[in-house]
Design goal:
This protein is an alpha/beta fold. The protein is built from 11 helices and 17 strands. Strands 3, 4, 5, 8, 9, 16 and 17 form a 7-stranded mixed beta sheet that branches. A 6-stranded parallel beta sheet has the order 12-11-10-13-14-15, with helices on both faces. The structure holds zinc ion (ZN) (2 copies). The site of one zinc ion has 8 residues, from helix 2.
Length: 353
Amino acid sequence: MMKGAYLPGNSTVEMRDIPVPEPGHGEALLRMKSSTICGSDIRCIYHEHLGKGPEGYQGVVAGHEPSGRIVKTGPGCRRFGVGDRVIVYHISGCGVCNDCRRGYMISCTSEKYRRAYGWQRDGGMADYLLAEEKDLIHLPDELTYTDGAQVACGFGTVYEGLQKIGVSGSDAVLITGLGPVGLAAGALCRKLGARKIIGIDVVEERIKLALDLDVCDEALRSGPDNVSEVRKLTCGYGVERAVDCSASETARATAIRATRKWGRIVMLGEGGRVEFNPSPDIIHDQKTIHGSWVTSTWLMEELVERLVCWNLHPADLVTHRFPLESVGDAYAVMAAGKCGKVAVCFDEELTAG
Ligand SMILES: [Zn+2]
Ligand SMILES: [Zn+2]
């Protein structure tokens, strides 16, 4: 038997004793090592079960950002074996629809087979996790399991978005929302050579954290003058690139309006809305707005390779680590929002960092 954490939807966590699963064909059993909490866990599950469709929580073991070590494999595994360190791409797709064939299992169109870990099939907030081999990404020795857990959703999502808009040394980048995704955006823009990184948030602790971690050159408090403040920091032009990680209506409008002519904006933050005026805000200034949802298995592998080359450790954004027994405290800290990333850790990962 093992312990697993469930989210009944009233801002509490329920621990249950459940059997350790047995890997079937093409499946691997992971000893969990690190499982980070995502903003979407709080937004769609923890307080209330709000998610629909791909975000519908089916009363399974929570946690969609898992990383661990394979302890057992079922028959038919082709690449991974016992002892391998792995990250789980957090959506198991049908494998044969057009989106799955592109590696974007997040967008799998099969209602019957698309199941996300921690949403529709058991996730990482347990001692062990049953995963399909095709969902696994190799975790190199240079990275810790907590680095890996964050690649699963946060860093992968940001990397994908940055690929869509392209970031280089020519660019000043605005990041609206300095939660874990915004901090990851800053860390990756830094390695991609952005010449100036400007962040905006409402929470004082997050502004301070962004500056302490040196993932932003300037961090502004959210307010009505943000657009002119950003212009002032960019010789009057505005930024070349903007990344919205806030899902806030005003911050999104700021991201659009503080981007200069010919600039690109990507929206990563989920939920909410935005109002803008197409002609002055994007058409006449030749701007492009991208939407980006999670990432693909191949870009996740590429990101892992680059993290090693860059010596970039996503776990540096983790401000709180909890053992599985205290998983309730972990969700409560994340829900309060005055933190970086929150991780539930096992074994050696608990004392690391
Ligand atoms: Zn996530
Ligand atoms: Zn599919």
